[in-house]
């Protein structure tokens, strides 16, 4: 009986993932910004224009919190970020719908992180495979109130369908030329550069799973880690924002090309995490006779 039920759960989860693949995206209603419209030499983002942005923080003591990294909501239970933002035994939380770095506002909601995954191949020294996933509790509900300010960004589930683009939008609360942590969400346009520019500027050698990108006078900076490189595309009958990169590392001066994790290189890993998590959650609900409302 137990074996058959587990097999049925596994088949159900596989079906969900196959459905997601057919629809191209991890979340079908992703990448839709409610508003049309540490990043040095960037500018203030319009509130609500990046509803997938996650403000990741840790609790220092009972009354003090500290900003850690950026991230993106990619699923009602999952936030995508950089592996180096996840430190063992550190208790993290996520604020969605945020705009200001110092205060929560009426459009924001806070979620506990009940599990964190770093890619097992992540290398602290060379920063290869710098990708991680945070699992939220409770599930994010896309209600009428939060629809405009809390929405997932698109993750294309088939790497062969990822378009070749060379311009990106980077978003974050990292250090600016005037502030250690930006007071409001910042946005900056970046261009993909030849890998040799990062190799020469940062004394490193990037591989095919990384993107070298930069701006003539601006750069992502300390605190922007984990945030997205996004691009606006027309897909599945609508204009959507798709995440193509994750802020990984750059120079201490924030005045040179930066290195970004190429999301399309890790689609299988992301789907594996989703698959394992959904299976365990469905099995837990079955064993404890829990039903969704």
Describe this protein's structure.
- The structure is a single chain.
- It is built from three helices and 15 strands.
- Strands 9-10-11-15-14-13 form a six-stranded antiparallel beta barrel. It has a six-stranded antiparallel β-barrel with strand order 3-4-5-8-7-6.
- Mean pLDDT is 80; it is low at 1-22 and 36-42.
- A hairpin with an 8-residue loop joins strand 14 and strand 15 (258-262).
- The protein has helices at residues 2-22, 195-202, 267-287; strands at residues 39-40, 43-44, 53-61, 64-75, 78-81, 92-96, 109-118, 132-137, 167-172, 186-192, 210-214, 219-220, 228-235, 238-249, 258-262.
- It is of the alpha+beta class and 293 residues long.
- It is globular.
- It is 17% helix and 32% strand.
- The longest helix has 21 residues, at 2-22.
Low-confidence stretches: 1-22, 36-42
Give the count of helical stretches: 3
Distance between the termini: 26 Å
Largest sheet: 6 strands, antiparallel, barrel
- Kindly report the average pLDDT value: 80
Radius of gyration: 19 Å
* Annotation, overall tally of beta strands: 15
Order of helices and strands: HEEEEEEEEEEHEEEEEH
Q: Structural class given helices, strands, pairing?
A: alpha+beta
Outline: globular
Strand order of the largest sheet: 9-10-11-15-14-13
Strand content: 25-35%
Q: What proportion of the residues is helical, as a percent range?
A: 10-25%
């Amino acid at each position: 009986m137990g074996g058959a039920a587990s097999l049925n759960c596994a088949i159900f989860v596989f079906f969900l993932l196959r459905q997601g693949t057919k629809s191209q995206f991890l979340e079908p209603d992703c990448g839709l910004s409610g508003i049309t419209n540490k990043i040095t030499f960037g500018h203030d983002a319009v509130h609500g224009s990046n509803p997938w942005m996650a403000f990741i923080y840790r609790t220092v003591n009972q009354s003090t919190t500290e900003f850690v990294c950026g991230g993106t909501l990619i699923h009602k239970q999952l936030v995508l970020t950089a592996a180096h933002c996840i430190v063992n035994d550190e208790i993290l939380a996520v604020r969605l719908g945020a705009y200001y770095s110092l205060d929560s506002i009426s459009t924001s909601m806070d979620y506990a992180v009940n599990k964190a995954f770093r890619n097992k191949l992540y290398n602290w020294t060379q920063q290869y495979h710098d990708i991680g996933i945070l699992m939220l509790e409770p599930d994010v509900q896309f209600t009428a109130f939060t629809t405009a300010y809390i929405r997932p960004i698109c993750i294309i589930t088939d790497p062969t369908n990822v378009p070749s683009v060379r311009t990106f939008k980077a978003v974050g609360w990292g250090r600016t030329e005037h502030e250690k942590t930006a007071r409001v969400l910042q946005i900056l346009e970046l261009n993909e550069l030849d890998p040799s520019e990062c190799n020469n500027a940062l004394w490193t050698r990037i591989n095919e799973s990384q993107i070298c990108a930069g701006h003539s006078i601006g750069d992502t900076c300390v605190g922007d880690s984990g945030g997205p490189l996004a691009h606006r595309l027309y897909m599945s009958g609508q204009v959507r924002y798709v995440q193509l990169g994750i802020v990984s590392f750059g120079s201490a001066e924030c005045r040179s090309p930066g290195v970004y994790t190429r999301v399309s290189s890790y689609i299988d890993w992301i789907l594996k995490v989703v698959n394992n998590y959904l299976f365990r959650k469905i099995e837990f609900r079955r064993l404890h006779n829990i039903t969704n409302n």
